[in-house]
Amino acid sequence: MEIVILIVVILVILAIIAIWLYNNLVQLRNRVDNAWSQIDVQLQRRLDLIPNLVETVKGYAAHESNTLTAVTQARTAVMSAPTPEAKMQADNMLTNTLRSLFAVSEAYPNLKADANFRQLQSEITGTEDKISYMRQSYNDCVMAYNNAIQTFPGVILAGPFGFTKRDMFDANIAASAAPVVNFGQTPAMGVPDVNTASAPVAVPNAPSIQQSQQPQSQQPGMPPQQSGQQPPQSGTPTQSGTPQPPQPPQQ
Question: Whole-angstrom Cα distance, residue 58 to residue 64?
Fold first, then answer.
């Protein structure tokens, strides 16, 4: 009888532990979903601002069709992404194209001075800052959830109850790097295109100055110098710039 009671107690304890683990995994998964829903709200807000931005840029830089088309296609890719993972990748491309568009606007002073463009740029930039902050919070929730389902004892319940790994929302290198925009300017004829940031600068060595001059050794075949007479200095330049050879002393 005591053995039966002991077995029942053990089963009850295991059931309580299993229920606690399951509830904990559900809470962690719900936190991940909630963090993603907040990001999705900001993504949708930015998507709603892009059509007005494109129309404003067209009024001043209509011939920048390639950049405007890239922004429109990236926006469509984000809207049609079926999963959060696909939407993350499409959003990275959208961020990159928007940065290129803002870089292109630097060549159009009238566009930069437009009040509507400045307002849209400010709102999109503020939305991207919110997305960046929420992305960090989302990644923290994903890390806690993934650790729970991949470590013991949560790994025992993760597989049977359908708890799968979630991907983090990381900005790729292309989206984080500053875009390089060429406005069609070419260097002048005969002027080399040098990258001053990476070109090495040669620094000439300063000539060494001797504090004391050593006496010059007497060359073979020359008569000895007479006392009281200063020998001419070798290599003294003339007016024409050619150094004269030393003159022998007069007898």
Answer: 8
